[in-house]
Design brief:
Radius of gyration: 13 Å
Number of strands: 4
Number of helices: 3
Largest sheet: 4 strands, antiparallel
Distance between the termini: 28 Å
Shape: globular
Length: 94
């Protein structure tokens, strides 16, 4: 089972973080989202549903955008099936 992890982005002096999915937090075995689209590193075991979400993500949400379609949003969607906006809306209405 994968979880969401993050690492500091060196070019931002660690202010921004890159989010990705991995079984054990190892970035060398991860899947994420960036300006080139889906980023696969090494081997990552995803459920059928998670794999389906990886494949449909670009069609549903479009190209990478640091503000509105970034790596954190990708990781959240692949893991939960919900966009972050849906999740925030639900939390605000509890």
């Amino acid at each position: 089972m994968v979880s969401i992890y993050s690492i500091p982005i060196d070019s931002t002096l660690g202010i921004a973080r890159h989010y990705y999915l991995s079984k054990d937090g190892n970035f060398n075995n991860s899947v994420g989202w960036g300006s080139a689209g889906v980023e696969r590193n090494g081997t990552v075991e995803l459920t059928e549903k998670e794999l389906q979400r990886v494949h449909e993500y670009a069609d549903l949400f479009g190209q990478y955008n640091i503000h509105s379609n970034n790596c954190e949003m990708f990781a959240w969607y692949v893991k939960t099936g919900q966009s972050q906006l849906q999740q925030m809306f639900q939390l605000n209405h509890l």
